[in-house]
Automatic annotation (TrEMBL):
InterPro entries named among the record's database cross-references: ArsR-like_HTH, AsnC-type_HTH_dom, Dimeric_a/b-barrel, Tscrpt_reg_AsnC-like, Tscrpt_reg_AsnC/Lrp_C, Tscrpt_reg_HTH_AsnC-type_CS, WH-like_DNA-bd_sf, WH_DNA-bd_sf
Molecular function terms from GO: sequence-specific DNA binding
Protein name according to UniProt: Leucine-responsive regulatory protein
Lineage: Bacteria, Pseudomonadati, Pseudomonadota, Gammaproteobacteria, SAR86 cluster
Name of a matching Pfam family: AsnC_trans_reg
Length: 150
């Protein structure tokens, strides 16, 4: 693992806020020469600390007006059942995140659709048809005062 000294931590913080910042601007903000800054960024990329760069999207402008978190309990707790569920769910465009979790259910999904009616179609026609699914609980996102996902 790369040593996360104060400079590397500063680089990561600035890149979290603006992944498109030029190397010259980044170097200036950190107080390094551009070549030294670039070497550090490349090392953070090479070691996998920086996995990639993403655009932060305006979901409302894309027609995505409904977000929900869904807890899913499986009827069968075998590896085969988990793999079948994961395969089915990862092919669904509405599912933006799928997490295998501990607790009373096996999965937590983040789902985005255009509206409640589109979510109902997903709920009925996708989740409702999967033989592995035993329980579904939906938590509708009303607002996101903090969301640091890129």
């Amino acid at each position: 693992m790369t040593n996360l000294d104060r400079i590397n931590e500063s680089i990561l913080q600035i890149l979290r806020e603006d992944g498109r910042i030029s190397n010259a601007e980044l170097a200036d903000q950190i107080g390094l020469s551009p070549s030294a800054c670039l070497r550090r960024v490349q090392e953070l990329e090479r070691t996998g600390i920086i996995k990639g760069y993403r655009a932060v999207l305006n979901y409302a402008a894309l027609g995505i007006g409904f977000t929900a978190y869904i807890s899913v309990g499986l009827s069968d707790h075998t590896k085969k059942s988990q793999l079948a569920f994961e395969k089915a769910i990862t092919s669904s465009a509405e599912v933006r995140e799928c997490h295998n979790i501990t607790g009373t259910v096996e999965y937590l999904l983040r789902v985005e659709t255009s509206d409640l009616a589109a979510y109902k179609v997903f709920h009925t026609d996708v989740l409702g048809t999967l033989p592995q699914v035993n329980s579904i609980s939906t938590y509708v996102v009303m607002d996101s005062p903090k969301d640091d996902r890129a």
